[in-house]
Specification:
- This protein has 104 residues and is α/β, with parallel strands linked by helices.
- It has one domain.
- Helices cover 25% and strands 36% of the residues.
- Strands 1, 2, 5, 6 and 7 form a 5-stranded mixed beta sheet that branches. Strands 3-4-8 form a 3-stranded mixed beta sheet, with helices on one face.
Length: 104
């Protein structure tokens, strides 16, 4: 989570890190991805600003996609951000959304 603060507006960048578990099939294509659960403390930190959802996939064919600025005030808002990340990863990787989960 990156936090920029200027003139009373806080911008947070929501992205997954290297610790995201990914399982690959025999052809080297991802078939299971588990995004990390966002802690209550992080939600408290970002609820006074904006979140910029981002998907970055560093592979032979890299992916970099930014979503729309989003207000996150509770877990439901964060779930919407992570669902956008799931849908975006699924679209660009050519896998089903249900193959991408969020840790409990």
């Amino acid at each position: 989570m990156t936090n920029f603060h200027t003139t009373g507006v806080t911008l947070h960048v929501a992205q997954e890190g290297k610790s995201t578990p990914v399982r690959y099939d025999d052809n080297g294509k991802p078939n299971s991805i588990e995004l990390g659960k966002v802690s209550d403390g992080t939600i408290q930190m970002v609820k006074h600003g904006l979140v910029l959802p981002t998907v970055i996939w560093n592979a032979e064919d890299p992916i970099f996609v930014q979503g729309e600025l989003t207000r996150v005030e509770n877990r439901g808002d964060m779930e919407r951000v992570q669902n956008w990340q799931r849908e975006t990863l699924a679209k660009y990787l050519g896998i089903k959304v249900d193959q991408i989960t969020v840790a409990a």
